[in-house]
């Protein structure tokens, strides 16, 4: 009887925790996508799309890091 009770408890616990784990996983995936998008936007704002070299904004940021 005790074994049946513990299996029932574990099944109920798993059913309650599964949605929480699913939401945590989805939030993690969205967070990674947002981080990738922000990094991509930063790269595009600081480099020339055709050549890949720093544009004026990127050059200014690099110069400020180096000399400022």
A few lines on this structure:
The chain has helices at 2-46, 56-67. The protein is mostly helical. The protein has one domain.
Structural write-up:
The protein has 68 residues and is mostly helical. The protein has one domain. Helix content is 84%, strand content 0%. The protein contains two helices and no strands. The longest helix has 45 residues. It starts with a helix and ends with a helix.
Helices and strands in order, then pairings?
Blueprint: H1 2-46, H2 56-67
What Rg do the Cα atoms give? Answer: 25 Å
DSSP strand (E) fraction? under 5%
- Major β-sheet profile: none
Q: How many structurally independent domains?
A: 1
Low-confidence stretches: none
Shape: rod-shaped
**Count of extended strands:** 0
Q: Give me the secondary-structure category.
A: mainly alpha
End-to-end distance, in Å? 73 Å
Average pLDDT over all residues: 91
Percent helix? over 70%
SSE string, helix = H, strand = E? HH
Which key terms come to mind for this protein?
single chain, 68 residues, mainly alpha, 84% helix
């Amino acid at each position: 009887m005790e074994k049946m009770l513990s299996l029932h408890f574990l099944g109920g616990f798993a059913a309650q925790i599964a949605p929480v784990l699913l939401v945590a996983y989805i939030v993690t995936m969205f967070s990674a996508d947002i981080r990738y998008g922000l990094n991509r936007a930063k790269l595009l704002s600081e480099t020339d799309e055709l050549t890949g070299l720093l544009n004026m904004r990127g050059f200014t940021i690099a110069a400020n890091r180096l000399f400022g």
